[in-house]
Amino acid sequence: MKLATKLIHAGIEPDPTTGAIMTPIYQTSTYVQEAPGKNKGYEYARSQNPTRQVLENAIAAIENAQHGLCFSSGVAATDAVIKLLEPGDEVIAGNDMYGGTYRLFTKVFAKFGIKFHFIDLQNEETLKSFINKNTKLIWIETPTNPLMNIIDIEAVSKIAKANSIITCVDNTFASPYLQTPLDLGADIVLHSATKYLGGHSDVIHGCLAMNDKDLRDKLYFIQKSCGAVPGPQDCFLVLRGLKTLHVRMDRHCENGIKIANFLRNHPKVGKVYWCGFEDFPGYEIAKKQMRGFGGMMSFTLKDDSVDNAMKLLTSTKIFSLAESLGGVESLINHPATMTHASIPREERIKNGLSDSLIRLSVGIEDVDDLTEDLKQAIG
Ligand SMILES: *Cc1c(COP(=O)(O)O)cnc(C)c1O
């Protein structure tokens, strides 16, 4: 089955009792048993829920995976992956990533004795120099948030495999429409389904997909033991979002190309970070591992000051100033004080995330209105 068909049909069967074509929201905490242990495979809704199960199967299908697992948020899914580790284990992660992931690693898990190294994953030699016998996990975000760096998933996974290290790819920015990391050798793929998968800015949700049964069983154990499961209503909303992912992504990509070029050609705009430019450092790898460049991009103004950036951020009329991304509506964001405020300034600046950087999540509105809006806001 091709992706567009899977997005609509994979994992989904008409409701067995009524034939309802849409997956029902099984709003229940428990299930009646005939005798202790004699049941229909459902005992308690933290462990099993039919709405969630359908979504988990759909997520697995669209990521070309054998197994899917859903969580109450993207960070809850990240949290589950890190709980595979033990004190003394080491993680190598990219040095440009979602601020909440950085916060979870450094402020929550570091104190349990897990060591995190944040490095430039674009450089294979640097990566190899950080690998030792305690390295258990490589954490990849690509394109990175917010600088749009491209990490070669296939190359990093190969190095990881040779050293018996698990690779997890946060695929939130690309979505499975543009990139399927398991096909490139990764072991686990993660989504903040809050973003493109849900697609309508109306739900917080996270998920994982993997092929290895043993890994799935360990993560399922963590899911039910730690309890960060999504409610059935949230699963329903993500299921509903998935059905139009391909259509939305096409428009995000189409608008993305136009907005990126508009910005690049604007006399007052400085640097534009978008992986679809042929002279962008990660372009060749992006072209190889992605099927389009998406609607995420960042930029600075030529007259590069925080004041000027702030003026722009508060002048748009269609782009809403808000955290998050991947919804149908366009958003504008100031990473330094919003999505990436939890990364220490020194660390941020060192990795190229300046105080004046502006990030866009280009939505699926009419692109002429979006360019007009940016034009009037840039002035
Ligand atoms: C938003 C985001 C997360 C966290 O997901 P939540 O659903 O907000 O918990 C993780 N990774 C990336 C790339 C994100 O953009």
Model description:
Helix 4 links the parallel strand 2 and strand 3. The protein has two domains: 3-242, Type I PLP-dependent aspartate aminotransferase-like (Major domain) (Aspartate Aminotransferase, domain 2); 245-378, Alpha-Beta Complex (Aspartate Aminotransferase, domain 1), CATH 3.90.1150.10. It has helices at 3-9, 50-62, 74-82, 99-109, 124-130, 153-162, 175-178, 213-226, 232-242, 245-265, 283-289, 306-313, 345-350, 367-378; strands at residues 67-71, 90-94, 115-119, 135-141, 166-170, 188-192, 206-210, 269-273, 296-301, 320-321, 331-333, 358-361. Helix 2 packs parallel to helix 9 and helix 3 crosses helix 4. The protein has a seven-stranded mixed sheet, with helices on both faces. The protein is globular. The mean pLDDT is 97. The chain is an alpha/beta fold and 379 residues long. The chain contains 14 helices and twelve strands. The structure holds pyridoxal-5'-phosphate (PLP). The site of pyridoxal-5'-phosphate has 16 residues, from helix 3 and helix 4. Pyridoxal-5'-phosphate (PLP) is lined by residues 73-75, 98, 100-101, 141, 145, 170, 172-173, 192, 194-195, 204, 206.
Overview features:
single chain; 379 residues; alpha/beta; Aspartate Aminotransferase, domain 2; Aspartate Aminotransferase, domain 1; 2 domains; 7-stranded mixed β-sheet; 5-stranded mixed β-sheet; 14 helices; 37% helix; globular; binds pyridoxal-5'-phosphate
Q: Assign the CATH superfamily of the largest domain.
A: Type I PLP-dependent aspartate aminotransferase-like (Major domain)
Q: Largest sheet at a glance? A: 7 strands, mixed
SSE succession: HHEHEHEHEHEHEEHHHEHEHEEHEH
**Radius of gyration, whole Å:** 21 Å
Q: Into which percent range does the helicity of residues fall?
A: 25-40%
Principal-axes shape call: globular
Number of strands: 12
Summed over residues and divided by their number, the pLDDT gives a mean of 97
